[in-house]
Amino acid sequence: MINPDEPYEIQIAKQAKIIEALINRAERGHEVGSSAYSLFESAIALQAEVWEKTKDLEKALDTLGKASSELEIAYQAQERIQRNLADAMVAMEGGFALFSEERLQVCNAQFRHLLPDIEPLIKPGLGFDDYLAAVSASKYLNRSDSGGIGRPQPMAKEQRPGQRFSSFVMVLRNDRWFQISYRQTSSGNIAVLQTEITDIVRENRREKNRLIDQQAHFLQAAFDHMSLGICTFSSRGELLVRNERFGELLGVPLLLLKKGSRFQRIVEHVERHEILDRKGRRSQFAGWFKAMRRGESVQERFRRSDGMSLDVRIRSLPDDGFIVSIMDVTMETQAAALLEQRVQERTAELSEANRLLKIHADEQTKIEGALRQAKEAAEAAHTSKTRFLAAASHDLLQPINAAKLYLSMLTETAGQPGAKDVVSRLNRSFTSIESLLQALLDISRLDSSGAEFNITSFDLGSLLQGLAEDLAPLATEKGISLRIVPSTRWVTSDQRYLMRCIQNLVVNAIQYTERGRVLVGCRPRGDRLRIEVWDTGIGISEEDQTRIFNEFTRASGAERGTGMGLGLSIVERACRHLDHPVRLVSQPGRGSVFSITVPLAAPGRASACENPMIEPMLDGSLDLIVMVVENDADELHAMTQILESWGASVLAAGSTADAAALMQEIGTAPDILLADYQLDDGDNGVETIRTLRALAGVEIPAVIVSANRQRELLRLGNEMSFAVLAKPVQLVRLRALIDWKTRARVA
């Protein structure tokens, strides 16, 4: 009578009608005067049916309530993901904006504040063409020094999706240079990136000036080694460069050969003192200039008063200046026997000058080659960055779209047998988004020039045990045997990055292995330890072995969905910074062996801020007073609900001042303090710990929850004895850390 596939409201209405009909029937039977026994029997049957329908109704309402709660949790998770995306945009060094349907959707502060006069226009809904037009018309652009750089132009509408790309450079009035790049993605969105290249431009200027100075130095050196007297003049006849030989041959005092002296004054001095015997010829100074203006050269031979013969040549230069060379040709007038010897000496001198010039030319060629290689490297880095951002945007959209679909399916199938599977798929989609964002953040940190590492000595066995517990479900789901050989060795490295590298290698091995097993073990090699990951998977060809460590690259033959192609890229970057050699041996169809070699260390004690590798205890009640300090209301509420579900009494505060007031109000210190690092108005979790410990007079166990993983925060954790838990928080590790910190205090 009732179809279980119909909505709950319709099922409940039908049940109410059936109950009402049964009650009316019982009342009518009483009115007709049925026997007492039949009335009693009807009442019993009616009561049983009413109870059964009531239970069905309660079960339906309970199922509906659970579905509503799960949907609310899914919405909260989606909001956290959106906030994480916004945080990632804020962390970018340059300006970034996303246009959807050629309308501005979202941008970071760097993008908005670049040009103050168009900042009021940078709002959601701004048209892409309007943005380009506003940039082109900005009064902060330096239009007098464009350097051949074009203004931004709207992209052609007829270009196919995926091919719309443009890049241009603009110069601001304060001598700052920016490169604006925009590309249309496959989904029709337009990503705009603003990158400051001021340092590159200024460095190019300095290099250009350095080369000019170097060329002048080489030119002067070449002049000084010549037997000729050389002197260059500007287009206005002012002396620029000369060698000592020029003054010696011409007999002109050094004061007259200073830089800036005019050619006419030098000629007048020579004529006035009759240094050269012109045999009564009149000065041809004006004629020389006219000949040089026509591009002709001037050559004359003079005789000094002491009998030396000089050959004077004047040639024009490309910049309308001219060069004067004076050569002693006295020997040409001597006997023929001495002529050949003189020619050989002159030839040797010229050869030496040519050798010096050739050396200079070779050095200049090398410099130009180095500059060309540097430019090609910079262009390759920019291309790789652009390709990386485009691929990352695409891979981010994929799991988000899948999550939206699963949400729609969850709404439609709530209460049906398939709902659990839909929720599981939705969870995997958001886990994929989290993994990708974490990978992007790791690559961004490793590629930055100021990447920080926390190098310590720690027990490798605890790290491997934690990895075994985390990855065992993945191997079981794949049907793969995962074995991690225990180790008692201590090593020196960055614990977080080393764990991430080994985890990436093991996950890759599981994903690319259809059947068989994955083995993780360690081999001592002198004062170093080689951590090896063996698998019986598909193997990697020699061609792929040279490229799989690039971002977004998978081995040939791998199925779609086997990963994002970022794991090995993170391994390569992290191990390169840590100086941990990475080795790969593989054979297609047989399997692969990846290894990481790390320095061994003497057994010791882990630092206070490192998270414990202990078995979490989630079964017992958390009978503790927990102070939670978090400036985000949603995260504070969520953390409060989780802790209370574990049995804890929670004191929730939004700042250090609120936390201190709460502690003074209850008159006792909490058993443990959980504080976010970044609070409002310059407040932070470290200050919260200091304040509450000072008020209580005891060292309250504390945990800082933050996405900040800088070395300075870890150093403070060691000094002040608090632990650091990275966001996003894993509840299993949070519970284990609370148990560990509170047990340590009791002990």
UniProtKB/TrEMBL annotation:
<dbReference type="InterPro" id="IPR036890">
    <property type="entry name" value="HATPase_C_sf"/>
</dbReference>
<keyword id="KW-0418">Kinase</keyword>
<dbReference type="InterPro" id="IPR004358">
    <property type="entry name" value="Sig_transdc_His_kin-like_C"/>
</dbReference>
<dbReference type="Pfam" id="PF00072">
    <property type="entry name" value="Response_reg"/>
</dbReference>
<dbReference type="Pfam" id="PF00512">
    <property type="entry name" value="HisKA"/>
</dbReference>
<dbReference type="Pfam" id="PF02518">
    <property type="entry name" value="HATPase_c"/>
</dbReference>
<protein>
    <recommendedName>
        <fullName>histidine kinase</fullName>
        <ecNumber>2.7.13.3</ecNumber>
    </recommendedName>
</protein>
<dbReference type="InterPro" id="IPR035965">
    <property type="entry name" value="PAS-like_dom_sf"/>
</dbReference>
<dbReference type="Pfam" id="PF12860">
    <property type="entry name" value="PAS_7"/>
</dbReference>
<dbReference type="InterPro" id="IPR001789">
    <property type="entry name" value="Sig_transdc_resp-reg_receiver"/>
</dbReference>
<feature type="modified residue" description="4-aspartylphosphate">
    <location>
        <position position="676"/>
    </location>
</feature>
<dbReference type="InterPro" id="IPR005467">
    <property type="entry name" value="His_kinase_dom"/>
</dbReference>
<dbReference type="InterPro" id="IPR036097">
    <property type="entry name" value="HisK_dim/P_sf"/>
</dbReference>
<dbReference type="InterPro" id="IPR003594">
    <property type="entry name" value="HATPase_dom"/>
</dbReference>
<dbReference type="InterPro" id="IPR050736">
    <property type="entry name" value="Sensor_HK_Regulatory"/>
</dbReference>
<dbReference type="InterPro" id="IPR003661">
    <property type="entry name" value="HisK_dim/P_dom"/>
</dbReference>
<dbReference type="InterPro" id="IPR011006">
    <property type="entry name" value="CheY-like_superfamily"/>
</dbReference>
<keyword id="KW-0597">Phosphoprotein</keyword>
<feature type="domain" description="Histidine kinase">
    <location>
        <begin position="391"/>
        <end position="602"/>
    </location>
</feature>
<dbReference type="GO" id="GO:0016301">
    <property type="term" value="F:kinase activity"/>
</dbReference>
<feature type="domain" description="Response regulatory">
    <location>
        <begin position="625"/>
        <end position="742"/>
    </location>
</feature>
<keyword id="KW-0902">Two-component regulatory system</keyword>
<keyword id="KW-0808">Transferase</keyword>
